[in-house]
Amino acid sequence: MLVLEDGRRYDGRAYGARGRTLGEAVFATGMTGYQETLTDPSYAGQIVMMTAPHIGNTGMNDEDMESARIWVAGFIVRDPSRVVSNFRSQRSLDDDLDSSGVVGISGIDTRALTRHLRSAGAMRAGIFSGDDALLTPGEQLDLVQSGAAMTGANLSGAVSTSEPYSLPAEGERVGSVAVLDLGVKTSTLKYLAERGFDVHVVPQSVTAEEVLALAPDALFFSNGPGDPAASDRHVELLRTTLREGLPYFGICFGNQLLGRALGFGTYKLPFGHRGINQPVLDKSTGRVEITAHNHGFAVDAPIDRVSESSEGFGRVEVSHYGLNDNVVEGLNCLDIPAFSVQYHPESAAGPHDANYLFDRFRDMVIANTTTSTATEGSNE
């Protein structure tokens, strides 16, 4: 049984592990990429429904994992594949859900649920199977309504690494980048290393002093779950490092935290953007990119003009916005070396339209390093 906090109930078949799970019910619109979705730490605390009806046909493998485990709180599909057929498959999706303790449900009308969430908004929900399916409807609804809401949730500590670690640069070395792990994905680190960065991943509990002690050439804030309004400490860390002149690139949660650091607010979207087919306009080129998203919050900034940072960081422009609803999808600082995007340019499950942003970051760091070296030389 799937139970929503507004009282709606959906009968289905048990899928994955049996038991009870609570979380925020959301939908993801990708036709493929379910393994990347399941293992993306940004989905922590969420019961994810796939709008594509047939899920699991290519199975699961070790190569496409975006982290070391499945993070979703629960999983909803219409028609789970009865047969796994792919030369890269090592096991079935059902097996991985079961072994990971992820409670799911199948066989419900996912189209009807999608339409309801689009109208009523993402909301708390619960999946009940096994003995928990025998609870009365009132008991199930009470459990759902007593669950934690996503607004105000700080989940960075649950998904971040506990210890720092590093990846060496590939090819010609450009410099080093400190990556604040707020729920970082494996593909993000891979793309940074491929651009010539020594990648130093640090836990979300790190201080600004500890980051600066690494003497990195740049700072990167990753994607991650939760409400950006509940991450004041990370905002202050970013402000401190920006004032030190450290170049910055942020993705998804990192975009929202840059917005807050610059003085903008954030707000919760009605049902969010989740999937690998979201159209975004790059204002600098006029090009429409098809991008991968997973965010339920957004930055509150004007998309039609250049703004002045209330925190003293100079001029800021919205660089990208979503064509479905005009939501801010990127920020670009005009007076300091910093930019961010709300979507996922690494998009391991596709598409790859926005992959150039890693090249833009590399070029920004090289330019900043060259300028700093020239300034030091003239001072001598």
TrEMBL record:
Composed of two chains; the small (or glutamine) chain promotes the hydrolysis of glutamine to ammonia, which is used by the large (or ammonia) chain to synthesize carbamoyl phosphate. Tetramer of heterodimers (alpha,beta)4. The gene is carA. The lineage of its organism: Bacteria, Bacillati, Actinomycetota, Actinomycetes, Micrococcales. GO terms for molecular function: ATP binding; carbamoyl-phosphate synthase (glutamine-hydrolyzing) activity; glutaminase activity. HAMAP family: CPSase_S_chain. Keywords: Amino-acid biosynthesis, Arginine biosynthesis, ATP-binding, Glutamine amidotransferase, Ligase, Nucleotide-binding, Pyrimidine biosynthesis. L-glutamine binds at S42, G224, G226, F253, Q256, N294, G296, F297. Small subunit of the glutamine-dependent carbamoyl phosphate synthetase (CPSase). CPSase catalyzes the formation of carbamoyl phosphate from the ammonia moiety of glutamine, carbonate, and phosphate donated by ATP, constituting the first step of 2 biosynthetic pathways, one leading to arginine and/or urea and the other to pyrimidine nucleotides. The small subunit (glutamine amidotransferase) binds and cleaves glutamine to supply the large subunit with the substrate ammonia. Its EC number is 6.3.5.5. It comes from the Bacteria. PANTHER family: CARBAMOYL-PHOSPHATE SYNTHASE SMALL CHAIN, MULTIFUNCTIONAL TRYPTOPHAN BIOSYNTHESIS PROTEIN-RELATED. CDD domains: GATase1_CPSase. The active site is at C252, H344, E346. This is Carbamoyl phosphate synthase small chain. Belongs to the CarA family. It catalyses: hydrogencarbonate + L-glutamine + 2 ATP + H2O = carbamoyl phosphate + L-glutamate + 2 ADP + phosphate + 2 H(+); L-glutamine + H2O = L-glutamate + NH4(+).
